[in-house]
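Lab meeting prep.
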Amino acid sequence: ESHIEAAVVEAQDLPPAEQQKARQRYQQFRDLPPAEQQRLREGFHKYQSLPPEQREQLRERWQDMTPEQRQKNQQLLEKAAFQRANCFMRIKQPAEEVAAYREKAMKGYEQFLTLFTNSPLASKALNGKGQVQLELGQRDEAVKAYDQAAALAPVYMLIAMIRSLHDCSGGAVA
């Protein structure tokens, strides 16, 4: 893709720390599902189609933000992405659309975990992903998600143990 090659050439003029950030962001992009990559490409093309003055205004607003404002913006985005997936997980009506909402929840949790790998909400997202996978009949994948959640937050270890007891006892936990 020619725009990637152009970005690589342009990145060679950046300081080493900025080059590393660019490589990390590119890898994050490559790890996204194809549909999310396409959504981001469309957003980028939309940005590129803005008049130069408008693009400059957006850049200036971002540059005018203090590091604290940028961090707060990132935290809000992180929480919003998590809550979006959670909302899709909790929708129970209309019954004929619940499966579609669970698929949206799954995609939301996966996107969240890709974008916010080190988030304090990652264990909750993995637990939610496991719940969705169980509802969708993906038991093995759910167990993996629960195990990952337990590795991040010990409280989920207890949940995993209870589920294991439930499975071993044929559904009856004393």
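Slide two material, second protein:
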Amino acid sequence: KTAYEIIAGDWSSDVCSSDLFPSHDISFIEVTGTHEMEVTPNEIYIAIHIKEQTVDKEKLTIEVQEMQLKQALKQINIPISSLFLTNTMASYQRVNWKNKDVVTEKKYMLKVTDAVTTGKVFQELDKLHIREAYIDHVDHSDIADLRKDCRVKAIKAAKEKANYLLSNSIVTGK
């Protein structure tokens, strides 16, 4: 929300003085203008966590899962360059009742551009038995420009509101 303040009345002859704020004896009107804009994100970030696991009594290593993930992304026309490694770790933990083993884990961030592609990614991850995946955050590539446009429209709305309230008796500032 952006506020636009319009000051109407007689300015003193000493406008360029160090006191730039009008005194209380000058009449003024204060209005606020708002503008809301609904934006569809064009950057969707999906967090993917893969770790060594056992599928059908067979150990599935990180390297195999990485290769399968990259092949699945190629099949749905997502460039590998949009997949970023964010974290790797290994821990010594119990894998069944009697044995302990080192289990490695990698975390990735995948950037996609629309909801349809996001759905395809989650379908492929389900086929690969990768259960730890979620939408981390969404963004828009032109968010700064969209915010500027929204502020400008809010200022224009406030000026229109002030002009309406003054009803042609006093001309507002430019």
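Talking points for slide two:
The helical segments are 62-75, 115-127, 143-166.
Confidence is low (pLDDT under 50) at residues 1-18.
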